[in-house]
Structure of L-carnitine dehydrogenase:
Amino acid sequence: MTTEKHTPSPGSVRRVACVGAGVIGGGWVAHFLARGYQVTAWDPAPDAEAKLRRLVDAAWPAVTELGLAEGASRDNLVLAPTLADAVADAEFVQESAPEDLALKRDLLARIDAATPPGVVISSSTSGYAMTEMQVDCAHPQRLVVGHPFNPPYLIPLVEVVGGERTEPWAVRWASEFFEVAGKSVITMDREVPGFIANRLQEAIWREALHMVANGEATVEQIDASITEGPGLRWPMFGPCLTFHLAGGEGGMAHMLDHFGPSLKSPWTRLEAPELTSELRDAMVRGCEEAADGRSTAELVADRDRAVIAVMRAVDEARKGRS
Ligand SMILES: NC(=O)c1ccc[n+]([C@@H]2O[C@H](COP(=O)([O-])OP(=O)(O)OC[C@H]3O[C@@H](n4cnc5c(N)ncnc54)[C@H](O)[C@@H]3O)[C@@H](O)[C@H]2O)c1
C-alpha cells in the first residue's frame, strides 16, 4: 500500500486516540482497550473521565466474554488534559464529537493540526460526508469516515469512506486497520448521505414513525413485527439473500419477475425505483455471487440453522433479562 512517509503499517499500531468520549467515543475506547491498544481520550466535558470510566466498566464484562486480546487492560486508558496531548503520539485517531457540522469542521481541523504527519484520522459521523467536514484541514488527504454502530465494542460493522480530498491510500489504510482491530469493514467507493446501513435503518424507522403517527400500528406491534419476523432471518442473510430464497428454486430472478409488480403497491411511503433490466440483472448477479455456489437447498439449510440458533439465543437472553 502506498502511504505517506510517517504512516505506520495498520498491523503495527499500538497507540490510538479517541476524541469525544460519549456513547460512541466511549464505546470505541472500550473496543480498542479490549483489543489491547494503548488509548488516550480527550473530551471537554467536566465530568468526562468519570463517565468514560463508568462506560468502560459497564462494557468490560461483554468484551471479556467475547475474548480479550493479549495485554488488554482498562489500565491502558489515559485521559489527556488537552486535545493536542491526546493526539500528539497517536498512530490512529477516532473522532466521536457531537453531530454538528460546524463543530466537526473546526474540531477535525484542530485534530489534523496536532496529529503527527501521515497518521489517519477517522470520524464516527452518522451522516455527514467527509467532503463537507474536511474543508478546513491542512492535510485533508488523511481524513476518512469510519462509521460505527452502537455499541462499537459489540457491533462489528464499520463503514469506511473518504471525501473528495481524501487520498485512496488513507481509505485502504483505515479499512485494513479496522480489520486488524477486530471490526467488520465495508469500504465504500463513493459518499452517500447516511452511508449504507443507516439508509436501510432509516427507511424502516421513518415507516415505523408514519405508522404510529397515522394510528396504523402501535410501538409494540412494530417491534414484534421485526423481532418475531424478518429480524430473525437477517443475522445470517441480509435482505437480498433473504429475498433470493423467497424466489424458491428460481431465486432472485423469479422473485423479481413474480413480485416485481408489487413495487407499485402502496406498501411503503418510500418510492420504488423503476425495475429496469439492468437493476434486475444486478440483483440476480449479486445474489448469485453472495450464494457462492450454494444450491437453494443448501441456502435454506443454512438459513434454517441460523434462525433456530438465533431464536434459542434470544430465548436464553430473555430469560436472563435484568
Ligand atoms: N449514538 C449512536 O448510536 C451513534 C452511532 C453511530 C455514530 N454516531 C456518531 O458518533 C458521534 C458521537 O455521538 P454520540 O452518540 O457518542 O454523542 P454523545 O453526546 O453521547 O457524545 C458526544 C461527546 O462529545 C463531547 N464533546 C462535546 N464537544 C466536543 C468537542 N468540541 N470536541 C470533542 N468532544 C466534544 C461531549 O462532551 C460528549 O461526551 C456523532 O457524530 C454521532 O453521529 C452515533
